[in-house]
Amino acid sequence: MLPLLEIPDSLISNQHLFVDAFFKSYPLRPSPLDLTLPDGRCRNYQFPTYFDKVQFSAGVFLCSYEQAAKHMPNADIKPVSALGRRAMVVVASYQYRKIHQMKGYTEVVVMIPVVNKEVNKGLNIPLLPPLIPGYPGAGYHVVALPMTSLENMLRGQQFWGVPKTLHEVLIDHDGGNCVTRIQNEGGLDFILRIPRRGKIKNTDQKSRVFSMINNKPIQFKTHFKGMSQNTTNWSVLFRPWKEAGNAESLELGRSPLAKVLKGLEINPEPFQTRYCNDLKSCLFLPD
Fold it and tell me: Please, what's the b/e burial string for 247-282 (b: 16 or more CB within 10 A of its CB; e: otherwise)?
């Protein structure tokens, strides 16, 4: 999908498309904040933002703990540790087919699982925080977020302080894989290949994201639900972190964004993969 640079004159009236129990559990409310558009107009949305019929694919990779720590938003947020002085980084592709009040778009989130040491009293148990629902102080910090919608880039920057940038994002199916290719005028950013197979799991996950707006720490909630197909490769944890296997799922280009990812020293063989073709999700304003 090419970047969508045109912002509609008005919001789409499509609330009738989001009527099941998942969305009804989160009643809509007007936002206390307006979005400022490039022409100076203000726009008010209802929240949380509803997403339906989302195609989702993600890989959980291991990376350098030292390099991941350089991306933390403040001193209270630390990367979740893994074995051998490593941390984790998640690369997740989202094709939003149905969105409340807006047109669909595509994005790829590069995020590091983290813990808030103020909440969990400095305890950083390897691997467990993102794997255990409700783990105290667990969440994510977004390192990069290439995507295809100018309107939603502005929303991400102004409401949540996340580094959304406009790129071309192409999603296709290649044999048994979901392949996401991210590129821009600087060439290839990266390619993510995730298998459309694995153990079927009813995923119902609430997460927190830690960010900064105007040099102030914020956090916000997401909730997604759907039947996903998951794989886990435990052997990745016990090999030297610079030694990649033969199941590489992440291919990096030579663009400025690719340079950021290379700086994390990511092992391109994933520890876990997840795929879902029909995800529901809600995105909330900061607390």
Answer: eebbebbebebbebbeebbbbbbbbbbbbbbebbbb
**Band of the pLDDT at 93, cuts 50, 70, 90?**
very high
Q: Give the Cα separation of 47 and 29 in Å (integer).
A: 5
Domains located in the chain, CATH noted = 15-283 (2.40.400.10)
SS3 67: helix
DSSP per-residue codes, 256-287:
HHHHHHHHTT--SS-SEEEEEEEEEEEE----
Nearest by Cα to 61 from 251, 200, 228? 251
Give the pairing of strands 138-147 and 164-166.
parallel
> Which three-class secondary structure state does DSSP give residue 217?
strand
Cα four-point dihedral sign 47, 48, 52, 57: positive
Q: Does the predicted TM-score (pTM) go above 0.85? A: yes
Say which residue the tokens 């994933």 belong to.
Answer: 270
How far does CA 46 lie from the centroid of its chain? 21
How far apart CA 161 and CA 215 sit, in angstroms, is: 10
Are the C-beta atoms of 136 and 119 separated by less than 8 Å? yes
Q: Do 155 and 103 touch, CB atoms closer than 8 A?
A: no
Q: What is the mean pLDDT of the chain?
A: 93
Q: Which helix (H) or strand (E) holds 106?
A: strand 105-116
Cβ atoms < 10 Å from Cβ of 75: 9
Residue 245: count other Cβ atoms within 10 Å of its Cβ: 13
**What is the spatial distance between Cα 49 and Cα 103, in angstroms, rounded to a whole number?**
12
